[in-house]
Amino acid sequence: MSAEPLASLDRSTLREKALDALRAAITAGQYGPGDHLGEVDLAGQFGVSRGTVREALRHLQQEGLVTAGARGMLRVRSHSATEVRELFQVRAALEGLAVRLLIAAPAREAAVATLRVAAADLDGTYPDFVAHLDADMAFHLQLCELSGNSMLVTAWRQLAGRIRVTIMARRDEEATLMSGRYHAPIVDAIEAGDVAKAVDVLQAHMDRAAERLAPPPGTG
């Protein structure tokens, strides 16, 4: 992946574009967990000043995508097994709420139809893992959006970058969990209107993902 120079933009737009470009590079796996993020190299790659890069990295620290290592060097964050499990516990709580709200919603039938299309799309042909991951994340975001709770959606989006970094770090483990068949039981339970079953299915979905994505003992 090559970065497009950003220097022709005005300063405020430049800052946002640099942040977006760095975030995209990290969440797409161009930089993996533990990789050093040097200001000089990044400034040259994106065609911006070191100060602009520094501001972007500071923001990504706040998002939990970047962390300070030895001698203050900034690196892509590596999530421990405990952190991965905690991340997916929170994700399960958010999406579990979305499921409850969807089942209670008057437009449940229409929401189910939309989710079936999104689940079927997961069995499509994708050029690479990142594109398939985009579709998987889109399904879960849509689940939250259809709940009608804007605060839930905002909270989910705040976790999205860390979810993607976690998945990209263990992409071989996640590939089998992104099929339409694996997501269909969530939609089935919502359609049936069975809140307890729907939440249980969603919880099992997240528990399995956390188990598969947690780094082995002694790593991460």
Describe what this molecule looks like in 3D.
The structure is a single chain. This protein has 220 residues and is an all-alpha fold. The chain has two domains: 11-76, Arc Repressor Mutant, subunit A (Orthogonal Bundle), CATH 1.10.10.10; 81-213, GntR ligand-binding domain-like (Four Helix Bundle (Hemerythrin (Met), subunit A)), CATH 1.20.120.530. It has ten helices and two strands. Helix 4 runs antiparallel to helix 10 (195-213) and helix 5 (108-121) packs antiparallel against helix 6 (129-145). It is elongated, with a radius of gyration of 19 Å.
Percent strand: under 5%
Q: In CATH terms, what is the fold-level topology of the largest domain? A: Four Helix Bundle (Hemerythrin (Met), subunit A)
Distance between the termini: 25 Å
Going by helix content, strand content and strand pairing, the class is mainly alpha
The whole-angstrom Rg is 19 Å
Unreliable stretches (pLDDT < 50, length at least 5) are none
Q: Judging from the principal axes of the Cα atoms, what is the shape?
A: elongated
Q: What is the helix fraction of residues, given as a range?
A: 55-70%
Give the averaged pLDDT, no decimals. Answer: 90
Identify the CATH architecture of the largest domain. Up-down Bundle
Can you identify the CATH class of the largest domain? Mainly Alpha
What order do the strands of the largest sheet run in, or round the barrel if closed? Answer: 1-2
Indicate how many domains the architecture comprises: 2
The main β sheet shows up as: 2 strands, antiparallel
Instruction: Spell out the CATH superfamily of the largest domain.
Output: GntR ligand-binding domain-like
How many β-strands, per DSSP?
2
SSE succession? HHHEEHHHHHHH
Q: What's the number of helices? A: 10
